[in-house]
Structures are given as structure tokens and as C-alpha cells.
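Course assignment 3, question 2. Fill in each field.
Student: A.L.
Task: Predict the tertiary structure for the chain below.
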Amino acid sequence: MLIKILIGGLIIFMLFNLFKAMMIMLKNEPSSPPMSKFIGRRLMASAVIIILILLAMATGLITPNPRPY
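Answer field:
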């Protein structure tokens, strides 16, 4: 259950950074932080999610769905 909460939190963090980068792109102010900072955070969060899912499947904490047929 903790793994699922952690993955959900990382997905929310990823969406937050996506919308933060979008707002910076739309404002186009020179004093704002660079958009790549938030896109990089989003990329790092997605990499952590994939690694976390693979580790959880390898250790047996989560199991994939059985074949649909």
C-alpha cells in the first residue's frame, strides 16, 4: 500500500511541475526561473516512478494483472 501511495504522490508531483512549466512558458517573463528546471524535475520523477515499479515487481510488493484472455 505504501508503494501505491508513493507512486501516486510522485504522479501528482509530476503533474504539478508540468503545469508550473506551462505557466512559465505562457508568461514569458525574463525574471522567472527557467522552464527546463521544472521539465527536468518532471523527467526525474517519471524515471523514479519506473524504477520504483520495477523494484516493487521484482521484490513481489506489487503483482501485475494476469493475462486478459
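Instructor remarks: The radius of gyration is 16 Å. Residues 37 and 44 are 11 Å apart (CA to CA).
Grade: pending
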